[in-house]
Amino acid sequence: MPRSSYRLPKIPEMTIRRLSVYTRCLLQLEEDGVETISSQELAERFGLNSAQVRKDLAYFGEFGVRGIGYYVTKLKAELQRILGLDREWPVALVGLGNLGAALFHYKGFSRQGFRIAVVFDDDPAKIGRDVDGVPIFGTADLAREARAREIQIAILAVPSEAAQGVTDALLAAGIKTILNFAPTRLRVPKDARLKNVDLSIELETLSFYLAQTPR
Amino acid sequence: MPRSSYRLPKIPEMTIRRLSVYTRCLLQLEEDGVETISSQELAERFGLNSAQVRKDLAYFGEFGVRGIGYYVTKLKAELQRILGLDREWPVALVGLGNLGAALFHYKGFSRQGFRIAVVFDDDPAKIGRDVDGVPIFGTADLAREARAREIQIAILAVPSEAAQGVTDALLAAGIKTILNFAPTRLRVPKDARLKNVDLSIELETLSFYLAQTPR
DNA sequence: TAGATTGTTAATCGATTAACAATC
DNA sequence: TAGATTGTTAATCGATTAACAATC
Known about the structure:
The structure is a homodimer. By secondary structure, the first copy, chain A, is α/β, with parallel strands linked by helices. Chain A contains 9 helices and 9 strands. In chain A, strands 5-6-4-3-7-8-9 form a 7-stranded mixed sheet, with helices on both faces. A two-stranded antiparallel ribbon of chain A has the order 1-2.
């Protein structure tokens, strides 16, 4: 069977993560007025190999100019398009406790085209209010309000006990892309795309290295 | 040159991360009263290969019983020792905004032996107060108060602008293991161990897959 | 043109997995 | 003992890096 023109060759996840890092670097370079950059220069900023940078890009096309390198503005635009960061994604934030509030105000999201369009929280003191103009609803209204805003991405920042219930509600509302901050294993169907952010695993690996080093 | 008995063979970082995951699973299994588990059963819970589980463990010793598997309580204790989770690590939390407060209350840390022993924040409204009995100091007192508590690990949850200054203060106080949540690149000496937690990169990779899928 | 840097192939490296003797 | 499962070696796979012809 010939490969559909929609389908790319299998892209390593690490490549996607690096593209995301390159993009941020290019945004900075553009601000600084830098016009071109070579794969060598770009690689050095992250301790990577220049061939790796070129190979990461080669999965998606030819963006450079031999003898010159890459035009910063052009490459930035290409990568934003590839990563889907050239448009606005309305996002639902579920849970407005400390973590939810921190994520709400997190600069990195909005800078890359993610816009928190609605907040869900079951605290009666919060329902019906808004944060910076973004309305807060109870999860009972999740499907209706998420659909009204054509939301495809949710950020989950609720207590572990509530996480599965909210997830089921999100799936029922047709939201299949979930970034989960609750430290719990969620059951989702195969076609859903769930990414768990584990806040404590990094600390545990740090303690390993600390424990290895006799003081 | 014979390998020093202190030095382990080079351990892949992914192995350390998986050990951390196994440990949490074993804690749960122990709570559930499960006495033994095979590499096969353990692997299935995370979609891994049983040989990988055995190999991860083999870096550190022989913990299983042929024909039986692993005794849950024994393996848990071994892994906790390896990861340095068998003791209490006093931790400094720097920055008590929304994110800092969320991390302060995060259950995962304390469950694994990390105890936030002191908080630093330069908000005059917070200095001199405490959270759940943990004192809050200004960063001017960082070196003195961190040393008094023999702190070796810091969690950084301050705004990006403040992150480098705080980092320098931490290093000056002899704290060389830092978990950084500020979305900024920190300069640290070679012997420091810095781990950056990037809250937005996961969202960006999710948007890549979403952008690939024509609706 | 000469120098620089890309895009790509081939070589290398390291991590994952299969297979199986050892042994509970 | 027979069955099960480990610890470990060998095979496989995939990602990284080196090398270089193509070309600006």
